[in-house]
């Protein structure tokens, strides 16, 4: 009798975990958000259609591509290692209800680790700023870190300079060197709106200074900085 009860309890636990798993999968894939997109494959093929937008980490790991938005359209999945670059249309609603459309662009890079389990280190990393400094953002799972279960790394590219990879740990040291010639920006580092999570905003500010060549001792915000709120 005791064995029968144990078997029953094990079956109920299994049913419970399977139900939770299926619910998670439904929430992840059940309601599709399709966005207008382009995809450039490593084999040279160029595609135009729609991609399924799930979350930042999934956007880096694979692409579910559709030729149309029709309900019967079937998806074709491309893993990140087969994609050279891609992008999709997104939108942002401001505080007064105005909707702004913009494009998010991704490029394949080899990272030290994949964005999540069952993915590859050949990752599709998002470009978040361009100009004198081109900035990419890589997001990845860190489930063992209770404070930051999802972590971020910024990749800095400048013509003629060695690529830099910036994390929370080396943020202060690397940004002081990166923005050294714009002294007004360096003095803001660490203050509100000038911390690690504001990296895009600071790169936009620096690129604006480089374009306009105003006094390096006077901080001037990039007029387009409000787009930083999209993140």
What are the SSEs and their pairings?
Blueprint: H1 2-29, E1 34-41, E2 46-52, H2 56-61, E3 62-66, E4 76-79, E5 83-93, E6 99-110, E7 122-129, E8 134-141, E9 150-157, E10 164-166, H3 171-178, H4 183-186, H5 199-212
Antiparallel strand pairs: 1-2, 1-5, 2-3, 3-4, 5-6, 6-7, 7-8, 8-9, 9-10
Structure description:
The protein is α+β, with helices and mostly antiparallel strands and 231 residues long. Among the domains are: 31 residues; 77 residues. 26% of the residues lie in helices and 32% in strands. The protein contains five helices and ten strands. It has a ten-stranded antiparallel β-sheet with strand order 4-3-2-1-5-6-7-8-9-10. Strand 8 and strand 9 form a beta hairpin. It is globular and about 60 Å long.
Strand tally is 10
Rounded Rg: 22 Å
Estimate percent helicity. Answer: 25-40%
Gap between N and C termini: 58 Å
- Major sheet: 10 strands, antiparallel
From the spread of the alpha carbons, the general shape counts as globular
Sequence of strands across the biggest β-sheet: 4-3-2-1-5-6-7-8-9-10
Can you count the helices? 5
Approximately how much beta-strand content do the residues carry? 25-35%
Secondary-structure element string: HEEHEEEEEEEEHHH
Low-confidence stretches: 1-29
Q: Specify the structural class.
A: alpha+beta
Summed over residues and divided by their number, the pLDDT gives a mean of: 86
């Amino acid at each position: 009798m005791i064995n029968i009860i144990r078997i029953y309890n094990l079956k109920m636990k299994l049913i419970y975990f399977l139900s939770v798993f299926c619910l998670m999968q439904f929430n992840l894939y059940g309601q599709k958000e399709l966005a207008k997109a382009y995809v450039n494959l490593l084999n040279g093929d160029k595609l135009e259609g729609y991609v399924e937008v799930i979350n930042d980490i999934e956007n880096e790991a694979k692409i579910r591509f559709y030729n149309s938005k029709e309900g019967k359209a079937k998806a074709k999945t491309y893993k990140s290692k087969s994609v050279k670059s891609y992008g999709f249309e997104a939108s942002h609603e401001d505080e007064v209800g105005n909707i702004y459309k913009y494009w998010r662009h991704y490029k394949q890079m080899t990272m030290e680790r994949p964005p999540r389990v069952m993915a590859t280190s050949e990752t599709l990393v998002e470009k978040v700023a361009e100009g004198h400094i081109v900035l990419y953002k890589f997001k990845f799972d860190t489930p063992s870190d209770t404070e930051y279960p999802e972590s971020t790394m910024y990749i800095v590219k400048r013509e003629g300079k060695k690529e830099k990879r910036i994390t929370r740990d080396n943020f202060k040291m690397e940004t002081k060197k990166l923005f050294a010639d714009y002294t007004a920006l360096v003095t803001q580092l660490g203050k509100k709106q000038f911390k690690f999570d504001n990296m895009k905003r600071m790169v936009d500010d620096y690129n604006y200074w480089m374009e306009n060549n105003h006094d390096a001792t006077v901080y001037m915000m990039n007029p387009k900085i409000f787009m930083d709120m999209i993140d």
